[in-house]
Specification:
Largest sheet: none
Helix content: 55-70%
Radius of gyration: 21 Å
Shape: flat
Strand content: under 5%
Number of domains: 2
Number of helices: 5
Distance between the termini: 63 Å
Structural class: mainly alpha
Length: 115
């Protein structure tokens, strides 16, 4: 393959016109690496010990959204796919919440029988 065939600049496919360039993917990867470095650094700051979990959860949500939007192409695909994805996430969180509520209101998991 020649150099001109590997470049994305000559692509005239209308579906590919909305997708980002490889440079954009590298920029997103750099941002994700920076957020990960912030997460690691925050872990070692003792003054933030009480806020550690909420801060790490917020940074995890940021990374989750960036990966979903760019690397899973949800930002550039049909809104239907985005709705399916968000609906699945909401359903999973609801099931998780119900299981956690049952776990904490009933005194923990059931003991093993016949073990």
């Amino acid at each position: 393959m020649s150099e001109s065939q590997t470049s994305m600049e000559h692509v005239t496919d209308p579906h590919m016109a909305d997708h980002p360039s490889p440079r954009k993917y590298v920029n997103v990867a750099i941002i994700l690496a920076i957020v990960t470095a912030i997460e690691v650094a925050i872990y070692y700051v003792t003054a933030l010990e009480d806020l550690l979990v909420p801060i790490l959860l917020a940074l995890a949500v940021i990374k989750f959204v960036m990966v979903g939007m760019y690397f899973m192409h949800l930002k550039f695909d049909s809104h239907t796919f985005r709705r399916f994805f968000v609906t699945g996430i909401i359903l999973a969180l609801c099931v998780f919440g119900v299981v956690m509520a049952m776990f904490f209101t009933r005194g923990g998991p059931s003991p093993l029988v016949g073990g």
